[in-house]
Amino acid sequence: MAKKLTTKELVEKIEKLTKSKIASESVVSLDRFRETQKKAGPRTLLIIEDEETMRKALQRIFELEGYILKLAADAMELSKVLDDSPIDMILIDVGLPWVNGFELAQLIKEHKDLKQIPLIFISALNSQEDMKKAFEIGADDFIKKPFDIEKLKKTVRVLLKLSEN
User: Fold this and answer.
1) Structural domain boundaries enclosing 33
2) How far is CA 79 from its chain centroid?
3) CA distance 115 to 42
4) In this structure, what CATH number is given to the domain that contains residue 114?
5) φ, ψ for residue 111 (rounded to 5)?
6) Same structural domain for residues 36 and 96?
7) Where are the beta strands (DSSP E) in the chain?
8) pTM of the model
9) 86-137, pLDDT tens digit by residue?
10) Strand, helix or coil at 69?
């Protein structure tokens, strides 16, 4: 008699089989790949960045990867975008106006539902003290601006995968 699978195990097996089938094809169109990713369930990223150009660039980068985005320029805007819908990762700038990224991240890490969400600081500030402070607050990574887009995307994918387990 076959072992009964939990829903999570079933989903994992389906995803693994689908990915292996796609990988076995000689050429997979980008549109077909993105459609498959969307069917697996898009992940939601919260980006808190005060520079509009950088915020829009990050939005474009991650929307093209199939993520759902919530955007905020500062703590005031963050209070408007937070709702009951799940957030899978937070990317936050340190140099935010009024309430800086460290202070905001500290508040996030004190929230019962948000504290387990992976958090990445993205900042032009790159002193050892800043990095140390970020990790003391509970950051999962600290990425210096300017950054390599492919490395940022890979970091997000890896941290999201780790957070699933």
Assistant:
1) 8-41
2) 18
3) 21
4) 3.40.50.2300
5) -80, 135
6) no
7) 44-48, 68-72, 89-93, 119-123, 141-144
8) 0.74
9) 899 999 999 998 899 999 999 999 888 888 999 999 998 878 999 999 999 9
10) strand
